[in-house]
Amino acid sequence: MAITDTNTARAAQLLLAGKVIAIPTETVYGLAANAYNMDAVLKIFDIKARPLFNPLIVHTYDLNNVRTFTEDIPDAALLLAKAFWPGPLTLLLPKKPIIPDLVTAGSPYVGVRVPCHDIALDLLKQLPFPLAAPSANPFGYISPITPQHVAAQLGNKLDYILDGGACRVGIESTIVSFAEKIPTVLRLGGIDIAMLEKVVGPVETALQHLSNHACTPGSLLVHYSPKKKLIIGNVSELIQNYSVIANHIGILSFTKQYDGIPQKNQVILSPQGCLKEAARNFFGGLRFLDELPIDIILAAYFPNHGIGMAMNDRLQRAQHK
Ligand code: TXA
Ligand code: MG
Fold first, then answer.
1. So where are the chain's domains?
2. pLDDT at 72
3. What CATH fold (topology level) applies to the domain 3-172?
């Protein structure tokens, strides 16, 4: 069983020895290993039961260090890096050969991110290599936002979980590609489109919601699924439709409590209606409901702006099973 602790020197030691450990970031916990070491990276895929066609994000501590494993960084990417790093933004940049093809699933672009988390940065600065790290959940399941979430599912496959507390953002990073002339958002996340556009002007989005193609990494339809059936819509109407099984319904609610469903089966993400607070509680709420003795989870879409768009994207993926 994994040890959970805050000792970054111990974490660094394990990573130097080619091990995989869980690390905190401001978005979600990551399953990290030396990005330059193929054997270590293979262990990540193995522990996560993740298909090899799905590439990994590489984490480091500053823009200068990013240059050691990427080629010419496009101007738009530089502007975004300077505006949002450290932060919940992943940029797809041309990779140098030092990044194994295994990390990028054969793509010439590597996903790069500087996390905004003191403990993660402290760890990264102790290492002579960047860290490849996907979210620390079994493939296709809900991303972990606490060390306890990681331990519950992967604790028996890991030696160490670096404890950085609960993740402040709670939703994964926004992913931007520069393969086309106009920067293209491939995954909505902690940085919203309006924030990006303030810095680089208009961006495209290619979220490929409805596709399950291996070539659209980060967009697999079944991502973020709870084990329970998730139904999205007008929650009050859904409660009417499913009233015969009222005691077996859970609700993931943005602000309010609903009548007719046991209170203990309702998670209210932000009574004040703050989208950022809701995002912080989102994956935890989904997990909580998933563990209850209920049959279905009801939810409504969030206001579709800011980080609400990223949560709507996660909801949509979670309902496809
Ligand atoms: O916030 C985050 O991004 C978290 C923390 C740990 O940094 N990481 C994360 O990793 O969400 P993961 O692997 O669960 O999701 C990253 C997504 C993957 O679905 C992958 O397909 C896509 O990013 N991705 C990574 N590298 C890519 C690349 N070179 N080209 C296209 N997509 C890439
Ligand atoms: Mg993930």
1. 3-172, 229-318
2. 92
3. DHBP synthase (3.90.870)
Mean pLDDT of 128-145: 96
Q: CA 103 to CA 93: how far, in whole Å?
A: 13
Q: How many A from CA of 224 to the centre of ligand 2? A: 7
Q: In the sheet that 296-299 helps form, which strands lie side by side, from edge to edge?
A: 229-232, 296-299, 249-253, 266-268
Q: Mark the residues whose beta carbon lies below 5 A from ion ligand 2.
A: 135
In contact, 255 and 272? CB cutoff 8 Å? yes
Minimum CA distance residue for ligand 1 atom 32: 217
pLDDT in tens, 84-121: 999 999 999 999 999 999 999 999 999 999 999 999 99
Q: What is the mean pLDDT of residues 30-45?
A: 98
- Cβ neighbourhood burial of 92 (10 Å; 0-12, 13-18, 19+): buried
Instruction: Provide the β-strand partners of residue 74.
Output: none
Q: Which ligand is nearest to the CA of 140?
A: 2
Which residue's alpha carbon is nearest to atom 31 within ligand 1? 217
Same fold, 3-172 and 229-318: no
**229-318 falls under which CATH superfamily?**
Threonylcarbamoyl-AMP synthase, C-terminal domain (3.40.50.11030)
